[in-house]
Amino acid sequence: MTSRLALFREMAEQQEYSALYQACCEQQDDTMYAGDRTFQLLFAVACAHVGEQSKAQSLLLNINESLQISPLCSVEKLDLSAVFLALERLDEATFVLDELLNEEYSLSVVLARKASCELMKGKCAVAYDLYLKSLSYDDSNAEIWLNLCLLLLDQYREANIGFGTEKDPLLKVREYLIKAEIAFEASEHRYSFDRQDSLLRQIDNIRFEYWVINNTLEKAEAWLYEYIEDCDFYISRVILYSEALLLENKSFIAETVLLNTLRKYPESIACYQALVALSSRFQREKDSLYYRDQYEQRAKVNIESQQVIKLNESLSESDEFHLQPLSFSLNERIKARFTRAFIDSRITPLCTLDKSLFSPVFIIGLPFSGCTLVEQILLANNKVSSVGESSHISVLVEGLNFKQREKGSLRVYPELVDMLSLNQWKALASGVQSFCMGKINTNTTSIVLDKGVHNVHHIGMIKCLFPKARFISVRRDSKSYVLSEHVTEWIKSEGNTSQTVPYSIGEKLQQYSELMSYWKSLFSNDILEVNFNSLIEQPNEISKSLFSFLGLLTPNHSINSTHDFSSYTKRKVTVDKAKQDKNLSELFSALNKKTIITDDMAFIKDPDLLSSVYSHFQHGAYREAEIACKKILRVIPDYPPVHHILSELYLRSGLFEKAVQSLETALRLAPWKEVQWARDLNRAKRITEEYQLNGVNNVDNKA
């Protein structure tokens, strides 16, 4: 009996509650166990954790009756505290744990458990101090170090501060994570296989959260790359990484990472499941249906799993907004990159290459500006289809950023687009077109709509991809916009606490207007402005202008007969007069902010310059490749991939010391590439040393 109970206790310590519950159920009718208090306590722990609360409560009653015969020993008190915690009877758990502290029994374990209890009460600072005190008695428990990391990460997200006097909680996270790994490695043998796997997932999850919050995505991706050939492990960690990105509102990067994984492992069901959940979260219906279809083709089952059903139900029933934050922080850089000179250097040659008839139409506007209404009106013509609010262009942008990090560069959009060759532009356009056509009825469609909110940032890029693309900019009267409850909730969800809501709304309107004015200065013939208020007051007239802009006939039936525009005009917002005046005053204060004038950004005028480097290199034209590299470095002096290529060119030209210098420069600029490039650096140094000792003849072949 003692050995069996020891096995049950080990299951509880390993948190294998389902297995413990099953084992206890098999023994509960055995008279040898039925009256044993230790067995009842362990059974109650299992019941409480698997959702059998009533059974756990019943077992507690039996235990209470046994106290009349003999009091609980310290071990039993510790088990009882575990039951109370699992049942969320926190005051009783605290009472039992305080008794154990007075007895000075297993102080490290008891303090850690009391910390968990305080955490469940919402007393994070108290829990943090108790965990640290627990570690002062025994610092070999990896789980406690991990709990400290999670507490600090949550605290940082809430207030960007640590606990007590700690000024930089992220440094502490890194320190505690290292200690957790050391503790885990030292005590790995104590854990079951499942518990080891669980702890390793927690360690890696914290690792990814730390990197994402620190915005050092290149380190996360370099770490992942080391495991790329281990399919199951790699995919499981990619999922963790994508979850960490979502937690920080980086959904486009998360989607990019998942799609990039599918290039390596195209049959990964887990990645498609994650993509379905992601697109459903942001109510991108067409994207969600597309990923569902891909999943079903591979899984051979219906994807209506409980996880996805619950997610969709929560989205439809909840008033919470799930919108990817819309920031205009790149406005000045976007305008500095997509200048008239840059556009002309790319669009003109691309137009000669583009023989397709694909001319997508992008409906542009701030959230709740009326883009969906415009989309519905246009869909009245059977030649029009829509991909809804897609992520195509935003994910394409993040894909380019991802590839730069992979190459060893932190150059990002919009700066990086001058490195794209004409053939790359064509390939990217083909990929986006393929995605679009996979989500619509291609038999009748001649025009494809996309109403992705974030496309306002990428109009310049879209015109390079699709020179025939057109845009419909939908705006709403600023006074009615600032009074909208939906708009208010959206602005609040952005988490901007430094400004009032009306001022933040005015800021968004001003930034949107400024960027759209710039795009109109470049593409005036391809942008149609639509006022939402005019649309609901004069639906037929505005609808005719919409169809005329697309070169389509207005449907024979009246637009009024298919859309209830009166429902928009009837919406009234009751606001206190003084509050309304204050809101409008703050709104106009933001709208009247002055525009910042920026200088044009230097760019590589030859779009095929970088691709020519690789072409020359492959054909042994090292001098020509070197000249092309130096042309790039004159514009972008700190571009690690080119420094890396230069090192290879110098090696082949016998300039060994220069090769070492170039590689050292590349590694200094891209330290996360150390694993891949350090091998090249060691090789270059070895060849250089041999050259200095033996002369050039002995090292030519090695170079």
TrEMBL record:
The keyword Transferase applies. TPR repeats lie at residues 640-673. It holds the Pfam family Sulfotransfer_3. The keyword Transferase applies. Keywords: TPR repeat, Transferase. GO terms for molecular function: protein-tyrosine sulfotransferase activity. This is Uncharacterized protein. The lineage of its organism: Bacteria, Pseudomonadati, Pseudomonadota, Gammaproteobacteria, Oceanospirillales.
